[in-house]
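To the team - 6-O-phosphono-alpha-D-fructofuranose complex, inputs and output below.
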Amino acid sequence: MARFVTIGEHLIKNQEGFPFATGGLTHLISSIRLAGKIVNSEINKAGLVDDIIGKLGSTNIQGEDQQKLDVYANRIFKDALEARAEVCGIASEEEDDFVAFDDQACKDGNYVLLIDPLDGSSNIDVNVSIGTIFCIYRRISPRGEKAVLGDFLQKGREIVAAGYIVYGSSTMIVLSTGQGVHGFTFDPSVGVFYLSHENLTFPEKGNIYSVNEGNYPFFDDQTKSYLKYCKEHDPATNRPYTARYIGSLVSDFHRNLIKGGIYLYPATTLKPNGKLRLLYECNPLAFLAEQAGGLATNGKTNILDMQPTALHQRCPLIIGSPSMVKEFESYIN
Ligand code: P6P
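Output:
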């Protein structure tokens, strides 16, 4: 493990291959790192400090109860990004519409960022790890003007950087700028994220499957057949697989990235488009998955090839080790 290499040093080292890199992306990512430290500090004392856990009494555009830390995290990331003025706007799970920053320095920004500030936040009160998920695009609207909707409705293939922060037994930033996936672990004693997992790669095959089996009655027949396959006893193919489902996407994804496995949130009769959001959950993780040698599909199409049509649109997500995702696709097709 490379010792004492910080995110900034790692990004600058990786920029050597990009002569036109202006450092803007590095500067942008440093604002995410700062916001992540602040949110991490607040999460770590949730339950000790009055009035930061639990429901806010409001709902977001998804109709989901907003947790106090959801709204707090959204504000911290939004303020940190606006202050660094590298992005002209953001789209967030916690914002009904995209936010186009007014400040001229922001309007001169080259990027937009899409974010789920605190995914799995309903787990906060029971001390289960949660996460921030984000991705970054180059803007397509003219520099110097306000961001427009089209800046945010780009295909996942156009992502220039994506990552997540997992606030778990240790806090990590897992990040890709298109040159592999790298993990940085937070050392709270010095307040620095150090490179701890260089070139994270999905094991080709794993034996972990992550799905909410409680939705079984609402899955289509092909998905049911695949899940039965996962549970059959066949030592030759290392089955039955092991069921691991935390109910926190970032944590399930992270474990499967390290150990090998597949995460599924398929379409159901109750949720024909699944539950997860394409723009700031599925696309960022699909970008990371492919950078780590994995795959991500909605059951029919590679997630990164989907043309977004709305900020908060949902899509089914099957993501993980390549041979396991292909195994699932063989049941669907
Ligand atoms: P269910 C959390 O609400 C989340 O968005 C993901 O983090 C998680 O994987 C999924 O939903 C859990 O959903 O329906 O299984 O509780």
